[in-house]
TrEMBL record:
The keyword Cytoplasm does not apply. InterPro entries: Acyl_CoA_acyltransferase (IPR016181), Acyltransferase_MbtK/IucB-like (IPR019432). Acyltransferase required for the direct transfer of medium- to long-chain fatty acyl moieties from a carrier protein (MbtL) on to the epsilon-amino group of lysine residue in the mycobactin core. This is Lysine N-acyltransferase MbtK. Pathway: Siderophore biosynthesis; mycobactin biosynthesis. GO terms for molecular function: acyltransferase activity. It comes from Streptomyces racemochromogenes.
Amino acid sequence: MSTTETLFTRTDPALGTFSIRPLDPFSDAELLHGWVTHPKAAFWMMQDATLTEVEREYVRITAHEHHQAFLGFHEGRPAFLMESYDPAHLELVGLYDARPGDVGMHFLVAPTDTPLSGFTRAVITTVMAALFADPATERVVVEPDVRNTAVHALNAAVGFVVEGPVTKPEKEALLSFCTRARFEAATALTTGVSI
């Protein structure tokens, strides 16, 4: 699969075109380094990472059988990072009863000096629509830091329901789930087809 290949595209009625492609850990590392070490990315837990460490982490992720990373674009410009993973094998092993069709998700919006109203919600909607575009995805699972109240509100806005806190090695997390039906009801989107 080419890292220049667009995997998913969604047009937001207010903000325009969002698209997602596979991440290239080498050519995208410098861009990602600026994002993951930015003060607004504190919950990403890479604040002190060097460029080499960021590159190494994304080489590891893109080579992993159960973990993928993607670069998201808004109107053709890099705007967000998306990761998906199999929670039966990573992140949440032993912390909940994983079901077939569960997909774990992380996303990070690029820092900006000119924020757009509704942008982060449009990003998470795009990420969720991309995950549910795969008919095998039954439920999206997230485990953000319990202190990350901003992302809890975003998750709720796209249909996530809180299961409760779980203790991970690196953080106390808020385990939450979103089914396809809940996402579609929350966003009034049809997710089965790329737009």
